[in-house]
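// run 5 | inverse folding | seed 20
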């Protein structure tokens, strides 16, 4: 009971912090996710035992360039290609049964693009159509939260078939399907509030967020399993580290940014 209460209090504080940053100002939102990115990078470095601090400098340089200095489509597309390429390569790592040992250079590239690139694109999403789209980014947060919450609840209630027992023994296929169904329901209601996307586009976004977010969660679990740890950190009582909270969003963000560009182009 005490653990549930602690998780609930931490969860409420986390959500209030996000809401405050989104609705206070775009600068507050930018700064929050810059800080979250640094925290995720630190936790990732600890998990994979990456030495040195140059990856923080590289991340801050990329973040400053793409958030404040350039809107050049070619540069943004190049960063998106690099980030998505690294993410796709990590899926081979996720589903491989062989033990993989990364070099320091590979760890640095993964940290910079998987973690750093994911946080940068997460920050860029509400600026996709120039103005700061508060309800669009909140909608993406809501889709992740709804999927995570109902995947957990449905999995605990109805879960029988393990999804990926070698990486995450508690996740079930039933829970994943339940999370997707409720995320689609949430997307239906979000289409009433945020009309930048049509109902069909919100539904497609929900499917992408659920699939990519679930893969991101599994990927972090594999890194932690290789390191022999339960959580990426201890900064959030009852929840672990910042990376534990953002693993789904960090992995899904570049794909969400890509699909928003496709929606804009098609419409």
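// decoded
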């Amino acid at each position: 009971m005490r653990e549930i209460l602690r998780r609930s209090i931490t969860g409420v504080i986390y959500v209030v912090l996000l809401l405050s940053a989104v609705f206070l100002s775009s600068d507050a939102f930018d700064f929050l996710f810059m800080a979250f990115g640094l925290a995720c990078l630190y936790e990732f470095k600890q998990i994979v035992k990456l030495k040195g601090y140059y990856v923080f400098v590289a991340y801050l340089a990329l973040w400053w360039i793409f958030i404040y200095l350039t809107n050049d489509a070619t540069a943004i597309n190049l960063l998106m290609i690099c980030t998505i390429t690294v993410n796709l390569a990590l899926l081979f790592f996720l589903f491989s049964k062989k033990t993989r040992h990364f070099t320091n250079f590979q760890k640095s590239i993964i940290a910079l693009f998987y973690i750093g690139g994911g946080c940068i694109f997460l920050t860029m999403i509400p600026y996709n159509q120039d103005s700061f789209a508060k309800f669009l980014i909140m909608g993406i947060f809501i889709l992740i939260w709804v999927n995570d919450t109902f995947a957990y609840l449905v999995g605990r209630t109805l879960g029988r078939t393990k999804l990926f027992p070698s990486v995450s023994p508690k996740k079930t296929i039933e829970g994943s399907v339940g999370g997707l169904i409720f995320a689609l329901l949430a997307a239906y209601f979000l289409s009433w509030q945020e009309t930048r996307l049509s109902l069909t586009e919100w539904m497609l976004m929900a499917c992408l967020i659920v699939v990519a977010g679930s893969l991101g969660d599994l990927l972090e679990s594999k890194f932690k399993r290789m390191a022999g740890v339960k959580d990426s950190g201890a900064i959030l009582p009852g929840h672990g580290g910042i990376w534990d909270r953002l693993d789904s969003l960090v992995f899904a963000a570049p794909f969400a940014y890509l699909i928003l560009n496709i929606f804009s182009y098609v419409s």
